[in-house]
Design brief:
globular; 120 residues; Cyclin A, domain 1; disordered N terminus; 8 helices
């Protein structure tokens, strides 16, 4: 576990909790990583970075924490749109918009690759 586990990181992990109401995933660490490719802590750290980047640019963030998980699941599984929509329980338009925008945001981040070094 990384040494930078702060109250903010814990709060961000709690923000990711609504995913379990929209996506039926076993909340165990192993299952989480199997579905999203990273740990819940790494997801929280990435979400925190996305929020900070939006603040720096003076833009209002149009995404919710579970949209990041949709994008991570898309990157991990690369499902057909219909399969991804079914997994995330959303429409194709909403799924496409959030996954594409967040994947672009992830691509612009310098630190994403560094999170993997803290994985167990």
């Amino acid at each position: 576990m990384p040494g930078n586990l702060t109250q903010a990181n814990l709060a961000n992990m709690k923000q990711l909790a609504p995913i379990y109401t929209t996506i039926e995933v076993d909340p165990s660490p192993r299952s989480f990583k199997a579905h999203f490719g990273v740990s819940a802590l790494t997801s929280a750290l990435v979400w925190q970075d996305i929020q900070q980047d939006a603040k720096k640019r003076g833009k209002e963030l149009q995404h919710k924490p579970w949209h990041l998980l949709w994008a991570l699941h898309f990157i991990k599984a690369y499902p057909l749109i219909e399969v991804g929509c079914s997994f995330c329980k959303t429409s194709p338009h909403t799924y496409r918009r959030h996954t594409q925008e967040l994947i672009k945001a992830l691509g612009k981040m310098d630190r994403v690759s560094n999170h993997r070094h803290h994985e167990n």
